[in-house]
Amino acid sequence: MEPPANPGDSPVELELTVHNVESALYQLYFDPVMERKNVAQKWLTEAQASAQAWQFCWALLGPDKLPEVQFFGASTLHTKISHHWSDLPSDQHDSLRMQLLSHILHFSLGPKMVLTRLCVALASMALNLIPQVWSQPVADMVRAFQPQKPDSEGAPEAPQDPQAHCLALLELLTVLPEEFHSGRLAQARRAQLKGALVGEWAVVCPLLRQLLQSQDSSNQVKEKVLRCLSSWVRLDVPLGESHELVQDCFSGLSNPELFDTAVETIVNAISQPDSQRYVDALVNLMPLVLGLHDQLKRAAQDGDMETSHGICRIAVAMGETHSRVLLEQVEHWQEYLALVNMILFCTGFPGHYPVSETSSSLTLTFWYTLQDDILSFEEDKQAVYLQVYRPVYFQLVDVLLHKSHYPSEEEYASWSSDDKEQFRIYRVDISDTLMYVYEMLGAELLSNLYDRLGRQLMDPQQSAVWQDTEALLFGFQSIAETIDVNYSDVIPGLIGLIPRINISNVMLADTVMYTIGSLAEWLADHPVMMGGIIPMVLQGLGKPELSVSSVSTLKRICRECRQDLAPYAQDILTMSQDVLVKEIHKSSQCMWLMQALGFLLSALPVEEILGRLHSLITPHVQRLDTLAQQEPDPTNKQSIIHILGMLSSLFTTLDINREADSSEGASSPRLTPTQSMQNPVVVVLQQVFTLIQNIFSKWLDDSDVVEAVCGVFEKSVRTLLHDFGPMVAQLSEMLGQIFCAFPQASALDLARQVVHIFAGEEHHIANIKSLIEVLTSATLTLFQQGPRDHPDIAESFMHLHAQILKRKPDMYLSDQLDVKRLFYCGILSLKFPETATVKAATLFFTELLPRCKDMPLLGEVLQEDGKLLTETLLQAVGGESPRSLSEHFSEVLLSLNRHCPALLSQWLKETLQVPGFPSAQVSTEQKDTFRQQLLREQTHKRRVKDIVKEFSLLCRGLQGCGYSDY
Predict the structure, then answer these.
(1) Mean pLDDT of 728-739
(2) CB 498: neighbour CB atoms within 10 A?
(3) Cis amide linkage into residue 918, ω under 30° from 0
(4) Per-residue CA distances from 582 to 506, 585, 612 (Å)
(5) Which of 261, 272, 840, 858 could form a disulfide with 795 if both were Cys (CB 3.0 to 4.6 A apart)?
(6) 567, 526 in Cβ contact below 8 A?
(7) Contact present, 298 and 292 (Cβ < 8 Å)
């Protein structure tokens, strides 16, 4: 490619000539400077859109040009035809068609990328002219590619190579449906075109059959035929007209060069939903699919994963897409049963997924489909099918359990982390399938699993194979996790068998833990059975490799069975304290464990809780005290956050009031803390309050630590509710101090929780009022300095004041609250780009506006600044904020219309009459229509949302682009 005269010059001002286009292409492809590449790219894009492109594109296709230049020429032709078709006079259509055909023939020998682009250009032209102007495009294309005598009139001059011409024709026929699918067409035009193209199938289909059956056709031609059929199948061409061609495709499965393409084509053809209408065609295809079984077995035996995968895809496509239709062909029931067994063979492919086979996962959804179809028949018919297929499903369970087997520990250790993750997901899919199959097989399935497990555990030789035991427990767990097994008569036996299992193997031990966890609800109804189970769980708790499974199982048991855990409480607390002090578990598991202990402590006698709570947390509080005295560093920080997180987790679930409520009606009801003593959590918080203040003093400027401290109190407030009362005064004072020193969102969020619960209690209101005044004053100062760097504080501040307006609006009567500045802060928050902040601001206004009538101070502020609020909302709707937020702005507009309609009408009129506001895209008439529609609607929230949404689309120039459907 010839370089430009001066490669450094920008092409922006260059004249649109062939030479300059080539120079820009050189710059795009070969210039090392990215900025110049981008300039060239922009100039070439503009060149393609220009009127001169219709002329220079042909020069770029000259035989002396480089392939990159020719490709740009062909792409330009496609761009012009697909996007600028109306620019071309209709009297030039025929000459353009002849030129395109001529060039396609010229490029039939390559380069392939240029040939394909020219074919796409002709396909795009055909779609513009079908059916009115070009009524038989396929027939004309086929005729144009027939071998021509050199001197015949009107024949395009081209090299005579029959195979190349044939491949070029097939390429053209292949891209024609593809271009239809990729083009943006109006619905009516798309339907018209699709009908016309489907009509052309009568010409295409015989041609493809002839080429596929011909002895003279090369593998290259046959592969192109298969791809062409795949392309046309997407148009939903009738299987009734093409099933013989699909049958011919099966011959390609014996040709290694054509195998993959043949599989893809057959799968596409028989997966076509419309093909269910052609029952005879499907029945005729069935023997061909079944005929692949021997080839499938050989491939599986030889470890030929590609062949077995391809045949598996064909079998599953036939069975899954047409399950119900084929089930209903009663006279062919044996053939369909044979297909089901073929798919069962695929499910049970030898080897471990995904290392030695990758196909069995393809079959799992088939079993859902078949089961759904069988169970959807009326009762009498269903009984017949169940008689045939229940045994198959029992076989399926055996196969799935076998496929879920772990490999040997040595082999598993050699797997990559990606393979292990894929295997984990595969087992989850198997678990879901087993759970689903239970609907068909019922209690008999659990009995079957139990009998096999019993035989294994009683037989010393069998129990040596840990994978067999693990797989059966995995089956139990899969079902018990989602199905109510409380009435199953095999669960007591299973619970009795579990302690006999040797959990020295990690994978088996993991599954034992998860199985116990899945039976936690059953254990709650049968507490007498816990004696053999709790020690196993505690044994697992001491092993780091069982961290996730043992901790999650203990948490489930403590949550479900807490009323009956008193005999085991000391053992659980001792073991838990031991593993926490030794730091056996990762941070997240420590949090789960503390939640479990919170459930456990909640159910103990009230007089015992405080003592046990102290012994549990004292080592951690002492560690926290030590850390608080040290100078801040990253290691200390993580340790502090970890310990505070454990306390938060514990206080999330330690709720003695809930236990008191659940004990009502019992023979000896518990005393509530208000009757006898303070809540143990409050006692602990009061004792560590000074320590927490010390942490604050050193870590005040670290948002993570502050958030962790606030988290302890927030979780406690949420759980204890009114029992937290004794802490309100201390907490309010501390929150005000830390926020003034270093404003952080977590302090505002905690204050919101306090307002939510205690704002209605007179003896707390003075403390809360002082806190709100301090927080508001500090935040207003922050807004005055520029809040843009603190979207989280703006969000939390808006939520806090929305909560105040909801729970205690008369706080706004305080002289210490500058309501006008608050209102303005809300307007500023509406302009933030962060979605969460904008949502919080809209919530603030929807709480504030209804109170403007009853509170004169708010009414005055609204009178003064309501126009600014309206203007801000319209700017946001008009394009300054994401479209997804328009419904939130619509709620504020609806609230304005409900509570001050006359003022809103005036503000809308004044703001919308400004030219170009809120967008230059909307006319004065459209703005008037919007205003009238909005003012008419004071009740229906959905209608207002639609009005605002439509106006937002108009403002953004998106009306009629399909966005209104989303």
Answers:
(1) 93
(2) 21
(3) yes
(4) 20, 9, 19
(5) 840
(6) no
(7) no
Buried b (16+ CB within 10 A) or exposed e, 668-677: eebebbeeee
Handedness of CA 733, 738, 741, 745 (dihedral sign): negative
Distance, in Å, from the CA atom of 305 to the CA atom of 293, rounded to the nearest integer, reads: 15
Q: Can you read off the two tokens belonging to residue 648?
A: 């938060």
CA–CA distances in Å: residue 67 to residues 5, 21, 23, 56, 279: 21, 14, 14, 16, 49
For tokens 């039976």, name the residue.
519
Least Cα distance to 846 among 779, 812, 907, 799 occurs for 799
Burial (Cβ within 10 Å: 0-12, 13-18, ≥19) of residue 884 = exposed
**Locus of tokens 């929780």:** 753
Contact 755, 768 (CB under 8 A): yes
Q: What is the pLDDT of residue 326?
A: 92
Q: Has residue 833 got a pLDDT over 70?
A: yes
CA distances 586 to 509, 513, 543, 647, Å, are 19, 18, 12, 15
Report residue 417 as tokens.
Answer: 């982390």
Mean predicted lDDT score pLDDT of the chain: 89
Q: Rounded to an integer, what is the distance from CA 251 to the centroid of its chain?
A: 41
Contacts of 180 (CB under 8 A, 6+ apart): 123, 127, 190, 193, 194, 197, 235
**Token code pair at residue 319:** 């069975």
Please give the angle made by the CA atoms of 374, 380 and 382, to the nearest 5 degrees: 10
Q: Helix, strand, or coil here: 4?
A: coil
Q: Is the pLDDT of residue 90 over 90?
A: no
**CA 780/CA 537 separation, integer angstroms:** 54
Q: Which amino acid would we find at residue 328?
A: E
- Mean pLDDT throughout 102-123? 90
In angstroms, the CA 491 to CA 487 distance is: 9
Take residue 669 and report the two structure tokens written for it.
């009801």
Return d(Cα 249, Cα 209) in angstroms, integer: 9
Let me know: does 357 contact 305? Beta carbons within 8 Å: yes
DSSP result, 159-195: ---HHHHHHHHHHHHHHHHHHHHHS---HHHHHHHHH
pLDDT tens digits, 386-430: 999 999 999 999 999 999 999 999 999 999 999 999 999 999 999
For 740, other C-beta atoms within 10 Å of its C-beta total: 14
Classify burial at 605, counting beta carbons within 10 Å of its beta carbon; exposed 0-12, middle 13-18, buried 19 or more.
Answer: exposed
Is the omega angle on the peptide bond into residue 743 within 30 degrees of 0, that is, cis? no
CB 349 within 8 A of CB 360: yes
CA 883, 887, 892: angle at the middle one, nearest 5?
Answer: 125
Tokens standing for residue 802: 């929305």
**Count of beta carbons in the 10 Å neighbourhood of residue 481:** 17
pLDDT at 533 over 80: yes
Q: Report d(CA 930, CA 959) in Å as an integer.
A: 14
pLDDT surpasses 50 at 673: no
What mean pLDDT comes out for the span 98-115? Answer: 90
Cβ contacts of 781 within 8 Å, gap of 6 or more: none
Residue corresponding to tokens 């009663």: 330
Cβ-contact 873, 830 below 8 angstroms: yes
Read off the tokens for 358.
């990758």
Angle at CA 802, nearest 5°, toward 797 and 805? Answer: 125
pLDDT of res. 429: 96
Give me the mean pLDDT over the 317-345 stretch. 94
% of the chain at pLDDT higher than 70: 94
Structure tokens at 603: 């159910």
Backbone region of residue 378 per phi and psi (left: phi > 0; alpha: psi in -120 to 50; beta: other values): beta
- Mean pLDDT of the region 779-804: 92
Cα separation, 519 vs 446, in Å, equals 14
| pLDDT above 80: residue 672 | no
